[in-house]
Amino acid sequence: MKTNTTFKTLALALGLALAGFAQAATPLPKDLPAYGPDKPLPTPQIAQRTLTNGLTVWVVPRDGLPKVNVALAVLGGTAADEAATPALSEMMARLLNEGTASRSSRDIAEALQAIGGDYSAGTGDDSINIRASALASHASKLLELVADTALHPSFPANEVALAKANALQGLKVQEADPDWQAQRAFGHAAYGEHPYSRDSLNEASVQAASPDSLRALHDARFRPDRALLVIVGRIDANAAFHLVEQQFGGWKATGKALADTAPAPREAAPQRLLVPRDGAVQSNIRYGRPAVPANDPDYIPLTVANTILGGGFTSRITQDIREDKGYSYSPWSRFSANRVGGSTLASVDVRNEVTGATLAELAKLYDGMASQPASAEELTGAKRLVGGIYLLRNQIQGALTGTLANYWVDGLPPSFLGSYVAEANKVTTEQVQAMGRKYFAAKDQSIVVVGDAKAIDAQLKPYGTFTVFKP
């Protein structure tokens, strides 16, 4: 399964986790002064404009490094792909910069190198995304390259053939990965037949990719009236709008617009799924259920509640399963929210001998979110972790660009950037308990286990009848 988490975000989270580890390992002195008052949150000014063709443009002028970051988001990601060829749009996105009507892949690579640029493209559940950056002095050239790859990709036959060969090799690797197997099975348990359950390539999708099929898919998805362009960096807003008009003003919408993805289920009958992995010495456990989209009022309270449950080093899951029981080195939980749905999920990888005991601990911890109110220390720590990661991450220019694009895709206004931390700080103990009752009851969670059936079958029996998952 794909994730939107960037390497920089992972590095930042790791740094914060290590800082939390150091704090946990070395008791703080007594009688420390109280936290100072929260300072006003800096909110960047976002200049907004909609071109006559319907393209939405957000520009954030920003002092600092002489660099410009660009994000183009087009609605219609893997959730819009046909069930018979899941994630075919991922193949299309991978090939956007492998040749256009006027440039070869080498031409594009050399042009990016000349302007100190980088470029990536991919798909999420709800959008196709291009991310690029370059030195601010070459903003015009950067936007020209992004426009060319987005609007005029040629999908050369030799590049498509190479991409297909690489993708088929990648499928073999991921099929052998227990984490990927567990996530695929959980997607099925949480979303059933909804398109969110099929966001990864399979062999049928790869074989269906051809220059003609990818061109047709591109033409159906890429429409200015269903797209957002974000520009962040050392650039004047009016100058940026002028460049955008030059490069994207001639983009026209053709054909019928893609239908919106139907809402994903917010509840699902809990399932018990086993993915056999003969000879495995550990069990990969996934424990969770569907939840809400990013624009739901529960989004922020549920984010804080999940942080208390398993979203930080001092979370209940980590302290119990790692620190107290020693069952797993890095257990965690997360709440993921997209445009039309979301999910909560705990991930715990343990040795075979404690598979059943770990499931018992998870049930206790999940039910405890409703029965055991968050302490003042837990609530304050969760809010500061949520706010701190958010603020630090969005100091990174590229991350800020992506955050704004993701907001638009998820149906959130750009003003959410300035209100997120303030709203998180308003979450109360009562709200956390309410989230516990609503989303964390153990009886409502699906359980997925990847492991050796012979080694763990007896331990699974108390938790229901497990069905072998066959994708």
What does this 3D model show about the protein?
The chain contains 17 helices and 12 strands. By secondary structure, the protein is of the alpha+beta class. It folds into 2 domains: 47-248, Cytochrome Bc1 Complex, Chain A, domain 1, CATH 3.30.830.10; 263-468, Metalloenzyme, LuxS/M16 peptidase-like (Cytochrome Bc1 Complex, Chain A, domain 1), CATH 3.30.830.10. The strands form 2 sheets. A 6-stranded mixed beta sheet has the order 1-2-6-3-5-4, sandwiched between helices. A 6-stranded mixed beta sheet has the order 9-10-8-11-7-12, sandwiched between helices. Strand 4 (118-123) and strand 5 (127-135) form a beta hairpin. The longest helix is centred in the N-terminal third of the chain and has 19 residues, at 7-25. The two termini are 14 Å apart. Residues 210-384 form the Peptidase M16 C-terminal domain. It holds the Pfam family Peptidase_M16. InterPro entries: Metalloenz_LuxS/M16 (IPR011249), MPP/UQCRC_Complex (IPR050361), Pept_M16_N (IPR011765), Peptidase_M16_C (IPR007863).
CATH topology of the largest domain: Cytochrome Bc1 Complex, Chain A, domain 1
- End-to-end distance: 14 Å
CATH architecture annotation name of the largest domain: 2-Layer Sandwich
Q: What composes the largest sheet?
A: 6 strands, mixed
| Helical stretch tally | 17
CATH superfamily of the largest domain: Metalloenzyme, LuxS/M16 peptidase-like
β-sheet strand percentage? 15-25%
How does the overall form come out from the CA principal axes? globular
**Count of extended strands:** 12
What is the H/E string?
HEEEHHEEHHHHHEHEEHHEEHHHHHEHE
